[in-house]
Write a sequence for this structure.
């Protein structure tokens, strides 16, 4: 409780003292001494308790030394969980920035520029032809080269059916080519064209005997016609060893495809339905040892579940 005493100064007449000395503050010549006394002002009774002198929380007594606004606010430490989350987010952001920088460096870095193209899977084409077609890619960073871009550059090479590319850092591109498969020969003038099941002309030869493929009757003018498509579909279903035994193929209609073997036998195929099953049955029949007393002249697989030989 704050004191309400007020110091007062009361003058008092000096008195002579007996003894050797005098009280401090007295004058032997009969002057006055200045004596300090204290008094307290007692508040009048008002029916209310006197103030304890304490300042209510949050309120400062108006005065000269009152604290500035906010000076009595205590600073509490940040929760550990929030600090941890902030640190984790900062670390994740740093890692993302570093990864992005590394990716950008890898994509655009001249260190990964294409210098060598290796080619596999070709037989009709020479690897040098594929490498020449992909020459525009030289010097381009490997991460920027896509299969679509490689495929687009190889489109002029009709022998290519599909292609895939694999980057081999730091500077090699491995190209795997899947070529179209020739299934027949088509005569055009003095030359013979090698064609696939779609009638795409893959190569030419002047010696049909050097190529173990059957000759499709009708010449190049038959390509694209219904009879050609039916015959080519049949040839495309045959395994390579059976295809090599054929001399020619013809079709009077799409339901009457016939094949000729180099030994002179005839294969009655019928239409193009169940061609995979017919090819398996024909391959099994051709493996049966020949009987000199009853040579087979016709292999009829038009009804593959009931084949006939005669």
């Amino acid at each position: 409780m704050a004191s309400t005493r007020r110091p007062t100064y009361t003058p008092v007449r000096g008195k002579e003292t007996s003894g050797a000395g005098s009280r401090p503050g007295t004058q032997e010549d009969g002057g006055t001494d200045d004596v300090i006394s204290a008094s307290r002002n007692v508040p009048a009774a008002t029916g209310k308790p006197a103030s304890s002198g304490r300042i209510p929380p949050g309120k400062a007594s108006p005065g000269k030394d009152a604290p500035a606004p906010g000076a009595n606010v205590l600073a509490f430490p940040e929760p550990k969980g929030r600090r941890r989350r902030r640190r984790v987010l900062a670390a994740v952001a740093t890692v993302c920035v570093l990864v992005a920088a590394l990716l950008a460096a890898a994509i655009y870095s001249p260190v990964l520029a294409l210098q060598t193209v290796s080619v596999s899977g070709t037989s009709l084409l020479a690897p040098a032809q594929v490498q020449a077609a992909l020459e525009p890619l030289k010097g381009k960073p490997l991460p920027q080269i896509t299969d679509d871009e490689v495929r687009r550059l190889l489109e002029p090479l009709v022998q290519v059916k599909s292609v895939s590319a694999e980057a081999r850092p730091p500077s090699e591109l491995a190209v795997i080519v899947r070529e179209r498969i020739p299934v027949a020969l088509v005569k055009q003038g003095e030359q013979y064209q090698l064609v696939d099941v779609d009638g795409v002309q893959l190569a030419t030869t002047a010696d049909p005997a050097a190529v173990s493929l059957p000759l499709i009757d009708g010449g190049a003018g038959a390509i694209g016609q219904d009879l050609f498509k039916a015959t080519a579909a049949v040839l495309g279903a045959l395994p390579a060893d059976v295809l090599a035994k054929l001399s020619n193929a013809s079709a009077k209609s799409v339901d009457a495809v016939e094949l000729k073997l180099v030994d002179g036998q005839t294969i009655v195929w019928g239409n193009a339905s169940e061609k995979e099953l017919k090819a398996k049955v024909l391959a099994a029949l051709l493996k049966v040892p020949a009987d000199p007393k009853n040579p087979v002249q016709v292999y009829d697989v038009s009804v593959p579940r009931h084949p006939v030989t005669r």
Summary: The first strand starts at residue 5 and ends at 13.
